[in-house]
Amino acid sequence: MTEPVVATPAGSGPIVTRSAGSGPTVTRSAGSGPTVTRSAGSGPEAEELLVARGISKAFGGVVALSELDFEVAPGEAVGIVGPNGAGKTTLFNCLLGVVPPDTGTVTFEGRRIDRLPVWRRSRLGIGRTFQRVELFHGMTVADHLLVAVQARSSGRLHLSDLLRRGGPGEEELAAVASMLALLGLEDVADRLVDGLSLGHARLVELGRALMGSPRLLMLDEPSSGLDVHETERLAGILADVRRRQGTAVVLVEHDLELVEEVVDRLCVLDFGRMIAVGSVDDVLANTEVRRAYLGTGA
Ligand SMILES: Nc1ncnc2c1ncn2[C@@H]1O[C@H](COP(=O)(O)OP(=O)(O)OP(=O)(O)O)[C@@H](O)[C@H]1O
Ligand SMILES: [Mg+2]
After folding, report:
1. CATH number of the domain that residue 85 is part of
2. Distance (Å) from CA 74 to ligand 2 centroid
3. For a substitution probing ligand 1, which of 15, 59, 267 has the most ligand atoms within 8 Å of its CB?
């Protein structure tokens, strides 16, 4: 029986820049850019890939999300940043069906999905990676990708069904080989995931999500625990996937350089509310954002 491996990432500290070390966290000047608004205003909803409206979630007395609106256009890369506990992972979990929101609706490609279970949302084309890496003991890197590609072509099957099936087809093996090449994981293809570095484990998770050819890829702090080179590789892979497949990306991330490199639009969550949405430069110059991060309006 395989069990999820829960690897511990380096943790999700305050927002960081890759080269900054202990330097200032937000370095752009406050400036006087265009007003940053709370709504994206990026066209009619019908054209959006994902639309969430009025999402609220409380855990006991803790309000994790409060009447939150969020949308992603086809092919768009959207960043979400915010202090620890702001509600970023909870938003992911509500969109993905891991956690039921208390209020609100979620639409994907024009279809209500907020009552669908996680696996149905995944089958519709929403892939994800976890803040805490979740892989399976006793399975190799290649096995993880193979199971993902077989699940894509087999409908709703359990892991045991997949393992009982005959050997993989040529197309499936080719898909795995090409994903291993994209991720740069050929050398560890036959290694069990148990002994992998966190960097490699995160890439396996990313590969597993990509094997489903998602229209929307949701990444929760994918660079956490990665070194500079691994983070650069991650940025390159995301750019490649977007260019080749037009995949939309939602990136929750503390590494601002990665955010800046990847996203078209940035959202800031604070205490379960979206306090700013706009271009990276405009958002980071926003007074309320700077106050949330730095405790100052400067
Ligand atoms: N399952 C849960 N039970 C109780 N409280 C929870 C649960 N999940 C989240 N919370 C609380 O909801 C709030 C938002 O948490 P969430 O994990 O979404 O924040 P986050 O922005 O992802 O933070 P981080 O940057 O540390 O990952 C926090 O106060 C957290 O303690
Ligand atoms: Mg989180």
Report:
1. 3.40.50.300
2. 24
3. 59
Atom of ligand 1 nearest to the CA of 221: 27
pTM for the model stands at 0.82
Contacts 24+ apart (CB under 8 A), 155-162: 155/123, 156/119, 156/123, 159/2
- Mean residue pLDDT of the chain comes to 82
- Identity of the residue numbered 23: G
Query: What is the separation, in whole angstroms, between the first and last Cα of the chain?
Result: 55
Q: Is residue 62 part of a domain?
A: yes
Query: 88 is in which domain, residue-wise?
Result: 4-20+28-137+197-294
| Distance separating alpha carbons of residues 130 and 202, to the nearest angstrom | 9
Mean pLDDT of 204-228: 93
Q: For residues 17 and 87, what is the distance between their CA atoms, to the nearest angstrom?
A: 21
**Residues 11 and 223: beta-carbon distance below 8 Å:** no
Question: How many beta carbons lie within 10 A of that of residue 14, not counting itself?
Answer: 10
What band does 121 get if pLDDT is binned at 50, 70 and 90?
very high
Are residues 233 and 184 in contact, defined by beta-carbon separation less than 8 angstroms? yes
Whether ligand 1 lies within 6 angstroms of the CB of 131 is answered as yes
Tell me: pLDDT of 37 over 70.
Answer: no
Any atom of ligand 1 within 6 Å of the Cβ of 222 = no
Give the count of domains, the chain. 1
Residue 157 in this model has a pLDDT that exceeds 70: no
Residue with CA at minimum distance from ligand 1 atom 28: 85
